Amino acid sequence: MRTALVIGTGLIGTSAALALAGRGVQVHLMDHDPAQARTAAALGAGTDEAPEGAVDLVIVAVPPAYVANTLAEAIRGGLARGYLDVASVKGGPRRELEALGCDLTGYLGTHPMAGRERSGPLAATADLFEGRPWVLTPTRDTDTEVLNLALELVALCRAVPVVMDADAHDRAVALVSHTPQLLSSMVAARLRDADETAVRLCGQGIRDVTRIAASDPRMWIDILSANPGPVADVLAAVAGDLDETVRALRALQSAEEDKRDEGAAGIEDVLRRGNAGRSRVPGKHGAAPAAYETVTVLIGDQPGELARIFADAGREGVNIEDVRIEHATGQQAGLIQLMVEPTMAPGLTAALRERGWSIRQ
């Protein structure tokens, strides 16, 4: 791949353009808002000047509702050897293209499983896709050259290709992406009118659950409008669990021991099913999640403190497998949780103590 045209210079389009430009591809940028394309170009993502002839690959990175028409216009204009989109739904756009009578041999639907709470070109990074799954949905009609271009794009962005059926993809993202967004927003919505005293008690649990609730509502309306059925199916199943859980909690209030036992069993059931489901979420490098030991350290909110604790761990030859930070309310300090291999935890704990760190059990 020597040349590419990215249509849509938001977070995903600009990030892909940055990755390609950084690896020597001549990238042209186009957006319905020329100022946004100029911003992406100023960031080093390519040029906002139109290509003089056909490019190797057109990457359509516009909201799902506009994908089919944008692709159809590009295909009819002969803008490239191959065409793909990066929308978060796949079945709908392909059916729309078929209805528009487009030749789909040169088209491949894709979806990089990466994103941020922020949107727009200023939120883009060249490493956004690194190590992340990038779904490809070829059909029997997909031209081999287009598939190879898509695989080259994924490799240049340092992502991991995953081949799926388009409709299976839409059901999958309804479960692992779209429904979590709505559930996160629903929990966060409870905080809007909550008493200030309650809000001040927020800890890492509520921060974890509500992190993605900071996402742009307009973007998510576009996404959910393109995949409403599968999302509604998952939410209906969640609603069934909620109903059962509410009944179990009410039973725990009963004066009758049998009902309390029944309620406890209901709560235990949903918690254990949650344990089982969580254990299936891939861990580091896509492998099954490992059982790490957590070393919790009090850390001050001063420049260089994170670098210092990581350096101290490195001096002991300890690899930090994962890390979390819980900020202390109203204090210039917080707790950093260092996840390490269980065999490394005792040595790390002792070494950090020797270097003056305050270890919390």
Task: Explain what this protein looks like in three dimensions.
Helices cover 47% and strands 17% of the residues. The protein has 13 helices and 11 strands. The protein has helices spanning 11-21, 34-42, 64-76, 91-99, 144-156, 166-192, 196-199, 204-210, 217-225, 228-252, 257-278, 305-315, 345-354; strands at 3-7, 26-30, 55-60, 80-85, 107-112, 133-137, 160-163, 293-300, 322-327, 333-340, 358-360. The strands form 2 sheets. A 7-stranded mixed sheet has the order 2-1-3-4-5-6-7, sandwiched between helices. The protein has a 4-stranded antiparallel sheet with strand order 9-10-8-11, with helices on one face. Helix 5 (144-156) links the parallel strand 6 (133-137) and strand 7 (160-163). The longest helix has 27 residues, at 166-192. It is globular, with a radius of gyration of 24 Å. The mean pLDDT is 91.
How are the elements arranged and paired?
Elements: E1 3-7, H1 11-21, E2 26-30, H2 34-42, E3 55-60, H3 64-76, E4 80-85, H4 91-99, E5 107-112, E6 133-137, H5 144-156, E7 160-163, H6 166-192, H7 196-199, H8 204-210, H9 217-225, H10 228-252, H11 257-278, E8 293-300, H12 305-315, E9 322-327, E10 333-340, H13 345-354, E11 358-360
Report low-confidence residues grouped into runs of 5 or more. Answer: none
SS content category: alpha/beta
The whole-number mean of residue pLDDT values reads: 91
By CATH, the superfamily of the largest domain comes out as NAD(P)-binding Rossmann-like Domain
| Strand elements, count | 11
What is the CA-based Rg, rounded?
Answer: 24 Å
What is the first-to-last residue Cα distance? 53 Å
Which percent bin holds the helix content?
A: 40-55%
